UniProtKB/TrEMBL annotation, chain A:
This is Uncharacterized protein. It comes from Candidatus Woesebacteria bacterium RIFCSPLOWO2_01_FULL_39_25. InterPro entries: ATPase_OSCP/dsu (IPR000711). Keywords: ATP synthesis, Hydrogen ion transport, Ion transport, Membrane, Transport. GO terms for molecular function: proton-transporting ATP synthase activity, rotational mechanism.
From TrEMBL, chain B:
One of its GO terms (cellular component) is proton-transporting ATP synthase complex. InterPro entries: ATP_synth_asu_C, ATP_synth_F1_asu, ATPase_F1/V1/A1_a/bsu_N_sf, ATPase_F1/V1/A1_a/bsu_nucl-bd, P-loop_NTPase. This is ATPase F1/V1/A1 complex alpha/beta subunit nucleotide-binding domain-containing protein. It is found in: Membrane. It comes from the Bacteria. GO terms for molecular function: ADP binding; ATP binding; proton-transporting ATP synthase activity, rotational mechanism. SUPFAM superfamilies: C-terminal domain of alpha and beta subunits of F1 ATP synthase (SSF47917), N-terminal domain of alpha and beta subunits of F1 ATP synthase (SSF50615), P-loop containing nucleoside triphosphate hydrolases (SSF52540). F-type ATPases have 2 components, CF(1) - the catalytic core - and CF(0) - the membrane proton channel. CF(1) has five subunits: alpha(3), beta(3), gamma(1), delta(1), epsilon(1). CF(0) has four main subunits: a(1), b(1), b'(1) and c(9-12). Belongs to the ATPase alpha/beta chains family. Keywords: ATP synthesis, ATP-binding, CF(1), Hydrogen ion transport, Ion transport, Membrane, Nucleotide-binding, Transport. Its main location: membrane. Pfam families: ATP-synt_ab, ATP-synt_ab_C. Residues 134-344 form the ATPase F1/V1/A1 complex alpha/beta subunit nucleotide-binding domain.
From TrEMBL, chain C:
Keywords: ATP synthesis, ATP-binding, CF(1), Ion transport, Membrane, Nucleotide-binding, Translocase, Transport. It is found in: Membrane. This is F0F1 ATP synthase subunit beta. The keyword Nucleotide-binding applies. Residues 367-452 form the ATP synthase A/B type C-terminal domain.
Length: 157, 485, 473
């Protein structure tokens, strides 16, 4: 169950929202003499989450609290990749992007996206303290450094 | 130091501030950073890596940073280094190597790492040359040698700084390089010190490394190490260097602050377990070497004259002796207030000539007798002739030792004057005139070439102190003519 | 270097099963994680990218994780760095090749000479499973220093401790003992000097002084001076003990083992333990202080093959004899000599506080009745004089009763008699060193007690050798 849930979490946003939902579930465990949980599960858990959880809870010897806490821990522990783009991508583009990262880095990473128009194009990636700059801005700067002398000369004339 | 983006680009690692705790911050990221490495923040602030844990790195701030959680930092792949060169002479710099007196640094031919291991015994040589301070009491009773580490200890306001400055002036005029490290002092004192060097004309032989008490703890911590590094540079040029560290008790408290913030377990007096090592590896870098010498005068403050404090005894265990400035003597009006019985020099006597050593011993033993005699006086008992004579001579010796903080007296004339005292030249002189007459002799020595030659020759010819005294007894005109003339 | 060559054996450096990863660095203590084959305590590890960086496994720090001491600079370490287990301990070269040399804890030369032969290098940590050999006939080593020979004689196979704060003369006293005994020792004895946490200048001067008196040939000096990191200072004790044991067990020699300064061994251990997460014990020291002291001292015992006689200098921080680190050393000593700052300041050198000095060897069976009686009586006189001191300072000596005056005067003479010029201080003091045979010392001490020298003024007794030197006018 865990792996299925984890694979559905794509971004840091997703992560935060799911964690919120789990917290709500945890706090409702003992409300209404234990009867509140079922209804909360139906209303609070999101569409794809609900059946997965339901299935897990109906198993033999399922301890709801422990299961939820374990799930929460796993979700909190997901590695994050921070991406800075020059513009806001579409939902589709984001998914494709995430897929690329997942195959090249690790399966269970989630992405956090930021926007900085100064990048002009391309992307900056930060993962585990490693920083890689594939932005157009950097390419231009490097170019400018190389041809600095020529450009300055031509401006003067 | 290049800029943030340069390091981000070339090293490809980034970190984020996670926790802020006064002078320490905890950051995530920077996977391959080394302990002791310098890190640069996006704001331009600088830090030094203190420890590494699996999740975080502990960074000691080196600038007054205004950081927030989430602030970015990068590796620089360099350790703490400072520029060194003759361009440092006459300048005031902070422990990071930045000038504090306006203009940029010039003529710095090299860069040196600040925290290095002390030299092994193969590079060392026994202490051989004397180090003249110009302060009579020290040069005659607690003499120092080039390459000695001598602790200058005493309560606050007992004249330690005056002594240090006198020594600096004397040594600078003899051609040594003098480096003064002000560790966490008041800003006002830093300015005063720099002006003093200019006024006394020794600026071109001095370097002042200063950190004020309002500087970040990491910067104050580096001050003596930076000063030592500069000293090593000049030593390697074949020079004799005088290094003053003012003061190490402040430095210890500063390191305690850093350690406690870093949650290192407190030991005795809440100091961290490695406080000894922090100071030892610094003090051990001074000494007499094949290339040159570094004489270190670390300063320690005592409280109510207690020499058995933890940091104080630690420093005594590292140094080759200590000069104790006694608050009791200071209150009695003695200047300098050096206590000759409680001060120790472990390698000073081996640098003295036979005559000097003989004189030292005679003088020290007289002082002990004089002291005993003074105690005896408390009983109000009848004072015999011998006792009277000792007391009279003792009084004059006290005057002899009393010295103005700006005077720097050459050893040779001191020896002659002492010989004169023993020979009875001043046995009839009133105390009020005594000091003035001695000063006249000093002046004559410094200004009249013929008198200087007389004195120097006499010193070379005398084989023992009694020889000297006997000669003066027989031919005291050469002295008396200068006093009255 | 031989040790590096051992490490680069093919199967070790490429075998991923024996690799560990650095996970944290705090001062000189590094945590290394071993996922597969775990190292043993005391194993020597090296950094894969730079074999000059050596670490020794200290203890566990969790499952699969180990605290390790870094024996060199930590500059090139980083998290994730690969560490290789050499599967052996730190090895120290033993044998005649070390005699006459000055080396560090690895046996590498510090005296500018060539490499020491590493063929017989053995691990420095030993399980102490030896049975102490009780020596029936105990011999005394004559040091020629009156106060020591009289009140705290050095027994062959025993341990003598010199306690004192900063600057009271421990090192100089130790050096004088070394100079006097080693200079007179026969070929059957060898001396090992461990310089733990002391000044490099002193190390240099000791080496020069030993060469000058031609006793360097039978001595080995092992230095871990105060400027070294705590791991090196901590292990210097073990390296030196390893060498001493070798000479005792394999070469069957009588070993004179000098340590300056055992306290620094405790202090180094303290520095290291504050960086591991062990809870601190009394006075902030490591919880393992007692066992560390024990395992070190219990290596220096007499066995069937030979004896190790130990003379150790012990620093007393802040002049506090009750300091826990200092107290942890007491149980292993046979003779305890205490140096006092007030005596030092009065110029009574060596500044030994006779009343605070005790010795197991002070027993008529060992030193003979005459010596024993004289010491008892001398101590009694000194004790009495101590209680009279107050009265004297208030009203003067002349106000005492005739009897008390006699005791007081004789006590002063004893104190003065115990002062002595050292050979090793000749450069500083410009007075010749003196060696006084034990017999003379006992006889003359007894003489003072008996009143044989009442007619000689007390100042004449200062810094002489034997009383026979005094010219009575």
């Amino acid at each position: 169950m865990f792996d299925q849930i984890l694979s559905k979490i794509r971004t840091v946003d997703d992560q935060e929202k799911i964690l919120e939902e789990i917290d709500v579930l945890l706090s409702s465990l003992y409300q209404d003499k234990g009867l509140g949980f079922e209804s909360t599960l139906k209303t609070s858990a999101r569409a794809w989450l609900y059946p997965l959880l339901r299935e897990e809870f109906s198993k033999e010897g399922a301890n709801r609290r422990n299961l939820l806490l374990n799930l929460k821990q796993k979700i909190e522990g997901l590695s994050k990749v921070y991406i800075t783009l020059a513009f806001e991508p579409s939902e589709d583009a984001l998914n494709r992007f995430g897929g690329v990262i997942r195959t090249s880095v690790r399966e269970d990473v989630i992405i956090s996206v930021a926007y900085d128009p100064h990048l002009i194009g391309g992307v900056q990636i930060i993962y585990n303290g490693e920083f890689r700059d594939f932005s157009f801005k950097r390419i231009f700067e490097k170019e400018f450094e190389n041809t600095r002398e020529q450009i300055l000369k031509s401006i003067k004339n | 130091m290049k800029d943030f983006n340069y390091y981000l680009d070339s090293l490809g690692e980034i970190g984020f501030v996670e926790e802020l705790m006064h002078s320490l911050i905890y950051a995530s990221g920077l996977p391959r950073v080394h302990p002791g490495e310098l890190v640069l923040f996006e704001s331009g602030d600088l830090g030094q890596v203190f420890s590494l844990t699996p999740e975080k790195i502990e960074v000691l701030l080196l600038t007054r940073a205004n950081l927030k959680v989430g602030s970015k930092l990068v590796r620089t792949d360099t350790r703490m280094q400072i520029p060194v060169g003759v361009g440092l002479l006459g300048r005031v710099i902070d422990p990071l190597g930045n000038p504090l007196d306006g203009a940029k640094l010039t003529d710095t031919e090299d860069v040196r790492t600040v925290d290095i291991a002390p030299p092994k015994i193969v590079e060392r040589v026994e202490v051989q040359k004397p180090l003249i301070t110009g302060v009579t009491l020290v040069d005659l009773v607690v003499p120092l040698g080039c390459g000695q580490r001598e602790l200058v200890i005493g309560d606050r306001k007992t004249g330690k700084t005056d002594f240090l400055l006198q020594s600096m002036v004397t040594q600078a005029k003899l051609g040594s390089i003098c480096i003064y490290a002000q560790i966490g002092q008041k800003q006002f004192d830093i300015k005063k010190m720099s002006e003093f060097f200019a006024e006394t004309g020794i600026k071109k032989n001095t370097v002042l490394v200063a950190s004020s008490s309002s500087d970040p703890a990491g910067v104050v911590f580096q001050t003596p190490y930076t000063a030592m590094t500069i000293a090593e540079y000049f030593r390697d040029k074949g020079l004799d260097v005088l290094l003053i560290l003012d003061d190490m008790t402040t430095h210890a408290r500063n390191y305690r602050e850093i350690s406690l913030l870093a949650k290192r377990f407190p030991g005795r007096a809440s100091y961290p377990g490695d406080i000894f090592y922090v100071h030892a590896r610094l003090i051990e870098r001074a000494g007499n070497f094949k290339k040159g010498s570094i004489t270190a005068l670390p300063v320690a403050e005592s409280i109510l004259g207690d020499l058995s404090g933890y940091i104080q005894t630690n420093l005594m265990a590292m140094t080759d002796g200590h000069i104790f400035f006694d608050i009791e003597l200071y209150n009695q009006g003695k200047r300098p207030s050096v206590n000759p019985f409680l001060s120790v020099t472990r390698v000073g006597h081996q640098t003295q000539t036979d005559l000097q050593r003989d004189l030292s011993r005679e003088l020290s033993s007289f002082l002990v007798t004089y002291e005993k005699m003074k105690q005896f006086m408390h009983f109000g008992a009848e004072v015999g002739e011998t006792a009277k004579k000792i007391l009279a001579l003792g009084n004059k010796v006290d005057s002899f030792f009393n010295q103005s903080p700006t005077a720097s007296i050459p050893l040779e004339i001191n020896m002659i004057i002492l010989g004169g005292l023993w020979a009875g030249v001043w046995s009839e002189t009133k105390e009020a005139d005594l000091r003035r007459q001695m000063e006249r002799l000093v002046l004559a020595y410094n200004t009249e070439g013929s008198f200087k030659k007389q004195v120097d020759d006499l010193i070379t010819q005398s084989k023992s102190f009694s020889d000297l005294v006997n000669f003066i007894r027989r031919n005291n005109e050469f002295l008396t003519s200068k006093i009255t003339g | 270097m031989n040790q590096d060559q051992n490490i680069l054996k093919p199967q070790l450096s490429t075998d991923p099963q024996s690799l560990g990863k650095v996970i944290s660095v705090r001062g000189q203590v590094v945590e290394v994680e071993f996922a597969h084959r775990k190292p043993a305590i005391h194993n020597l590890l090296v950094l894969e990218s730079d074999p000059k960086v050596k670490l020794e496994v200290y203890s566990s720090s969790g499952t699969n994780k180990f605290y390790c001491l870094v024996l060199s600079s930590t500059d090139s370490l980083f998290r994730g760095a690969n560490v290789v287990n050499t599967e052996s301990q730190i090895l120290f070269p033993v044998g005649k090749s070390v005699l006459g040399r000055v080396v560090d804890i690895f046996g590498d030369p510090l005296d500018g000479g060539g490499k020491v032969d590493q063929v017989n290098a053995i691990p420095i940590h030993r399980e102490v499973k030896l049975k102490r050999n009780v020596i029936t006939k105990q011999e005394v080593y004559e040091t020629g220093i009156k106060v020591l020979d009289l009140f705290a004689p050095l027994i062959k196979g025993g341990k003598l401790g010199l306690f004192g704060g900063a600057g009271v003369g421990k090192t100089i006293l130790l050096t004088e003992v070394l100079h006097n005994i080693v200079g007179r020792a026969k070929e059957s004895s060898v001396s090992v000097f461990a310089g733990i946490g002391e000044r490099s200048r002193e190390g240099l001067e000791l080496w020069a002084s030993l060469r000058k008196s031609s006793v360097m040939g039978n001595s080995a000096l092992i230095y871990g001076p105060m400027g070294e990191n705590p791991a090196v200072r901590f292990l210097a004790a073990d390296s030196a003990a390893t060498l001493a044991e070798y000479f005792r067990d394999e070469e069957k020699k009588d070993v004179l083992f000098f340590i300056d300064n055992v306290y620094r061994f405790a202090q180094a251990g303290n520095e290291l333990s504050t960086l591991t997460s062990n809870l601190p014990s009394e006075d902030g020291y490591q919880a393992t202080l007692e066992s560390e002291m024990a395992s070190f001292h219990e290596r220096l015992i007499p066995t069937k093959t030979g004896v190790i006689s130990t003379i150790e200098a012990i620093y007393v921080p802040a002049d506090d004899l009750l300091d826990h680190g200092v107290q942890s050393i007491f149980p292993y000593l046979d003779s305890i000599v205490v140096l006092s700052r007030s005596l030092y300041q009065e110029g009574n050198l060596p500044a030994v506080d006779v009343l605070a000095t005790t010795s197991n060897s002070m027993h008529p069976n060992l030193v003979g009745d005459f010596h024993y009686e004289s010491v008892i009586r001398a101590k009694s006189i000194l004790k009495q004089a101590e209680s009279l001191e107050r009265i004297v300072s208030l009203v003067g000596e002349t106000e005492l009763t005739a009897e008390d005056q006699l005791v007081y005067k004789r006590a002063k003479k004893i104190k003065n008699f115990l002062t002595q010029s050292f050979f090793v201080a000749e450069a500083q003091r410009q007075s010749q060193g003196k060696f006084v045979p034990l017999r003379t010392a006992v006889e003359e001490l007894n003489g003072i007690i008996e009143g044989k020298f009442d007619h000689i003024p007390e100042e004449k007794f200062r810094f002489i050798g034997s009383i026979s030197e005094i010219k009575v006018e």
